[in-house]
Amino acid sequence: MGGQRSGDELLVVGVSLTGKRQLVLANGKNGNRVLGSQSSFALNGEEHLGSNYDRCVFNEEKNFKLELQQSDDESLSGGDFNVRDLEVYLVKEWKIPAKSVATAQPWREVPLWNSPSLLSLQDYVSKYHPIEDTSVTNVNILLLGEVGAGKSSFFNTINSIFRGEITSRACAGSSKHSLTTTLRKYRVRDPSSGQYLNLRLCDMRGLEESEGVKTQDIALVLDGNIPEHYQFNPASHATPKSPGFKRDPELQDKVHTVAFVIDASTINVINTAVIHQMKEIQSLIIERGIPQVIYLTKLDKICTDIDNDVKQIFMSSACKQAVDTVADVIGVPRSHVFPVKNYEKESRLHTPIDILALSALRQTLVFADDYLED
Ligand SMILES: Nc1nc2c(ncn2[C@@H]2O[C@H](COP(=O)(O)OP(=O)(O)OP(=O)(O)O)[C@@H](O)[C@H]2O)c(=O)[nH]1
Ligand SMILES: [Mg+2]
Q1: 98: in domain
Q2: Fewer beta carbons below 10 Å: N end or C end of the chain?
Q3: Would you say residue 223 lies in a domain?
Q4: CATH of the domain at 257
Q5: Where are the beta strands (DSSP E) in the chain?
């Protein structure tokens, strides 16, 4: 398949898959629906090609080639294998992976990418206790963000660091709707002490336009009313009659810091409904005086230098630009935005990846203490 980028719009002119099936992607002018030989169906259910179809290679002329895998054509065609010829599909925005442009100076203080630096961060997190004179023994950090942003992967990354090997306790992957459907308050064990860390990473269903979690449910999560394992229902929010609903939550049950998890490779195309919901959620967070941070993920997808070597993150102009944009769009100080690279393709731990994730977590714990102090 091929196409040409023009301005901010990318026109995909056709697809021809080898074998019997022929697919040509349709555009949005037919209400984003395409005609198969016998039926009509929504293309991919969305206005843009999802992360399932992002194996996109650009050449110097900005022509691109999208490499589809065998499994893609089923999801593209909605399982309709009678599809032969479809119309052109218009992709509204496609971020071209930035060429490696290094800034003259690092845009933020660069950590020492070595084992002592990692050990000191690990030591801080494993010895962390919420400030005394509160009843709180564990701080609750809520991971919140769009479907597929990397919330569960961030928990897996932290858990892997302490386990000393790549782990995958939380289910992570690409899917049209949120893979995580319940509220999980994950604890992390530090094998060196045999103790659990004094924090919980709360993972939940992602935000999305149609089937996402309701803002009312998020208010209840912030206030500690919703129990662990609660199954979010996109059609209706929790009520005091919901199973396990906590009518009188204590400070220990509440969220003490919110970490918005944002996919750097899609910040320019975040669905406006999702941004609107994030703003509503922010009002709830601000009303409650809860600190907020941003974990900016998938930077390896916007800068080839970072993909090759995570240590380049603070020298990458694409990363700096992404941090500036997200701070502006979400409305938080840039110092609250933490670039991270989650474990996803790696088969062993890498010190720089660990340092980025633990630096983000360390600062989040400092903010959580600020909240508890007040
Ligand atoms: N390249 C890259 N991929 C990532 C990164 N973080 C997560 N991913 C991938 O993105 C996909 C979605 O990650 P998840 O952790 O499942 O995202 P989520 O926010 O939990 O998504 P839902 O539970 O579906 O709302 C997975 O395929 C991950 O492997 C990252 O930093 N870089
Ligand atoms: Mg998840």
Answers
A1: no
A2: C
A3: yes
A4: 3.40.50.300
A5: 2-6, 9-14, 33-35, 40-42, 56-58, 63-66, 89-91, 139-144, 184-190, 195-203, 257-263, 292-297, 337-339
